[in-house]
Amino acid sequence: MKGKYKFVVITLAAVSIGCAGFSYNRSVPTPFDAAVGYVAATAASLNVKIIDKLGNTVSYFKGISRLNSENEKLKEELLSARAQLSSLKLVEQENAQLSSLLKMQEEYSDLPTIGARVIAKDPGNWFTSFLIDKGANYGLKKNMAVITAEGLVGKITECGYNYSKVVSIIDDTDAVSAQSVRTNSVGYVTADFSEEAQCKMQYSESSSDILVGDEIVTSYISEIYPRGISIGHVKKLVTDDKTSMKYAIIEPSVDFSRLDHVLVINKNTEYEFKEIATTGSDNEK
Fold first, then answer.
1. 10 vs 228, which has greater pLDDT?
2. Terminal Cα distance for the chain, rounded
3. What pLDDT is stored for residue 79 in this prediction?
4. Which pLDDT score is estimated for 272?
5. How far is CA 51 from the centre of its chain?
């Protein structure tokens, strides 16, 4: 056994010495070294490519994530800017309307008026009837006239402590005494239920000089509405086939598709009208 071990040791030593001698001071690698080097270089190159690929992939997804985050931030900023712009427009519209109401108050400075905000309305596209945020707590009463800077809105039909219900002229079946500014022709304006958000003015044949485009205002004989408040303009003239009654379709001065603020004429004109009429009768007697 010992002889065999000696042989193996001597053989390995000889091979080692031979390899050392063969590789000493040479410029060309051995086939074995070349094979090992090729495999190692290939593996290293592959590792580098894989690492580069992974690095690029990670960078790509990081870039996508960053872009998504920036897009979300931009969207939020855009929504915030739109909300601020919308809020600014609403404030400007409200200020414009309040400014118009102040001018209207100055125009009707001889009449006591109270500004009120619309707080609710019936379903639909038009403000046929709605609630305002003033009532008996501000001295308001039934049948008080309601106006805007553009003209006549309607009247109060119900009055609570801190609210009032208003019925507009495009829904009111009661007649409003009216007249033409151009000719002073007198008639009666009611809601025209055949045409949405319109009114109609009935007048006699002797007042047939009313023309399309004429402005119609409240007349001097109205029991509820002060004289001279704009109701609207004549849109067209119609003759009823059944009754032969002539009437004019009125385009209201007020935009009944949107109302935010109104003025209430804080004056019981109906009572004062009756009082004046009674006093006049007594004097005649």
1. 228
2. 164
3. 79
4. 43
5. 55
Identify whether 160 is part of a domain: yes
Mean local confidence (pLDDT), 172-198: 88
Residue 143 lies in a domain: yes
Where among 57, 79, 107 does a domain terminate?
A: 107
222 token code pair: 């109205």
Work out the number of other CB atoms within 10 angstroms of the CB of residue 164: 26
The residue count of the chain comes to: 285
pTM to 2 decimal places: 0.61
Q: Which residues contact 179 (CB under 8 A, 6 or more apart)?
A: 185, 186, 187, 216, 217, 218, 219, 220
At residue 120, the 3 state secondary structure works out as strand
User: Is the pLDDT at 235 greater than 70, yes or no?
Assistant: yes
The residue among 60, 77, 107 that closes a domain is 107
Q: 275: pLDDT confidence band, cut at 50, 70 and 90?
A: very low
* Amino acid letter, 185: S
Question: Are 116 and 132 in contact, with CB atoms under 8 Å apart?
Answer: yes
Q: Which of 237, 238, 230, 219 minimizes the C-alpha distance to 179?
A: 219
Report CA-CA distances (Å) from 186 to 115, 143, 192, 222.
30, 22, 18, 11
The answer, yes or no, to whether residue 6 has pLDDT greater than 70, is no
Q: Which domain holds residue 50?
A: 29-107
The sign of the torsion formed by the CA atoms of 248, 149, 184, 142 equals positive
Give residues with Cβ within 8 angstroms of 94, minimum separation 6.
Answer: 260, 261
Under 8 Å between Cβ of 261 and 116: yes
CA distance 262 to 117: 6
Contact between 216 and 179 under an 8 Å Cβ cutoff? The reply is yes
pLDDT score of 283: 39
pLDDT at position 277 is 39
83 pLDDT higher than 90: no
